[in-house]
Amino acid sequence: MPFSEVTFHGRWLLEPSAARASAPATSFSFAFEGRSLAVELEGEARFRIEIDGVETGELRTRERNLYVVAQNLEAGLHQASIVKKTETELGCISLFRIQPEPVPRSPSEPNSRSRLEFIGDSYTVGFGNMARDPITGTAFTTTDATRSYGALTAQKLGANFQINAYSGRGLVQNYMGIAPRWNIPRLYEYALGGEAMLGNSPPWDFSRFSPDVVCLFIGINDWQGECCHPNPQLFDTAYADFLNILRTHYESPQFVLLSTDIYPQNCLSERVESVCAREISKGNRDVRHLYLETPRNAGLDFHPHFARHEQMAKALFQEIQSFSRKKIVL
């Protein structure tokens, strides 16, 4: 189907037959006329459904099917937003059809909204943030990227955003040495992170989204786990190299380098502060370091839970407000 009347947020690969995505918190929104709504989707995922600005429920998908997402609506024009809660680490989800077909909507979304990007690992995905305790549930059932610190920060700022995050991945090395060739900087270059390792993803077209602020929460997996950890100088150099790559992709964004306490090698904040100081000494005034407190994590596998994500979002919101070059209407 043609997608000209659909607004996509996040990294989507738009093909003639389908729109595909792997990243968490990707979404599509549109207007339609009718009393019911169905979408043809394929791929294992959970989605938040909003109709006319009200969250109406959750959709779970797996095999290709026409899934009913709304029924018994009042006749007339409606607005729908469907947001992916989960991360697709391997593969992607595919959108084939919307029934009834979307119709033009007016006014269009203003282009003046600020744009944020969040790059990271499972903390940025929102991994297990809705779990009732660290040992109950699975990543699929307890992760809600729409309630991650990134999505919450963007909501507070009224900003468009992307979350490009990859659970278990690090800057130099991944958690416990998994998939050593596929760290965050490499996966980041692809449109579909979950398809990249399978050889099924083209590079991402960076002209499609140019953020005003890029928040990097990377390095946790480099220093966690009972295995060897990177040389500090190697880590710092890799971080600086990644910043330079981002500068080539985007036009003068501000960078917020995030850190927190980790186990067993609690040196991430020290390393990020070192990177930030060195960047400033080189004349790069586009960086700042923000330490986030994440004690006593109660999410799945001891990840930050929802209340912690709210606290992280509050701190990041205040930090971005303090230096924003644009007037942000709350």
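Next protein, fold it too.
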Amino acid sequence: MQQQLSKPAPVQVVVADDDAFQRAYTAAILRKLGYETREAADGLEALELVRALKARILVCDLDMPGLDGHELARRVRAEFTDYYVHILMVTGQEQNRERERALEAGVDDFMRKPLDTITLKARIRTTDRLMRHEILLAERSRVLEEAKERIEEDLRAAADAQMRMLPPPRLKVADCLFHSAFKPSNFLSGDMFAFYELSPGYIGFYAIDVAGHGVHASLMSVALGHLVTAGMMRENAFTDGRPDPARLVAQLNRRFFRDDGTEYFTMFCGILEAETEQLHYCQAGYPSPLMMSRSGAAREVGDGGFPVALLDSAEFESQVTRFGAEDILVMFSDGATEAENREGLAFGESRVEAVAASAAVMPSTIPGRIVEALTEWRAGRLLDDDLTVLVCERKHVS
């Protein structure tokens, strides 16, 4: 439903002059022009009327008892900051210094005594057009701000729903313990990950990073999160009873490919065969994880691969590496490696590895350590990309 702009209220004008005849004459002209007019015999009374009526136009004499025109203008400018009061000063003086003082005090325009009716009407109408334009802009700004607040509220609700789809930061799956850290760069994220026990002795997991940012990437990541379930992995990530994660990735490639090449994602999909200590995996453009010992020695897993849904003819390969009982698998999105400091230097794989190695004796602390290191690297600035850090340890000792 389209938000309607409210109808502007009648314009209130305060006429301030200690000369009763001049005051009444000016007010009569303004009333004939359709303005609601109130009169004040001195500056203090004028200030009270502007305050009470929320008047948008003030026509005042320079020389008045109580507050003169200069002081009245200063008081109006100091007090009424939520909206603009247009001040027209009437004076019989011609000195440039007086005009300078008036402008410094906040006066918008001048009219000389004796007042010329045609000039007064022209000045007031010009002021009225400016004022109504300001009111319209303010009203449009209010409507836009309300719409922005509603959108942000919806985004926060969507982000909360997306967060609830992710596993908890610490999750035991069979004989594996998974630790995770997730930091979206904005309300919504294009990252998704999950861990499952597929059957006794087989543990499946994946990490996905959708290209781009914002709502579109988030919708795609949520769709993938709903699609790539334990059931789907059981049915599509095995060939002749043996783990084959590339089969699942190839199916996703066929399903999500679009000719324009704008909707694609990187993925690391793994199936751990506990009895043989073999990790069957398919790397599709996702950063190479680290297989790490508790002493901190590390080796990269995988050699890159091609993103999913970028090319319909892309081929994906299942590979195997050892995942021993004391090993730790550290996975991370490119939000970690590509995070830049103030000098534009990327954090890089070597720093991720160094931080992970320093905490390898307590694998549960690795995600938090990497987040802390990136926060320091960014000097407290928000990340430009979503950040996911996942750690899988075979034997829980921390």
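About the second fold: The chain has a mean pLDDT of 90.
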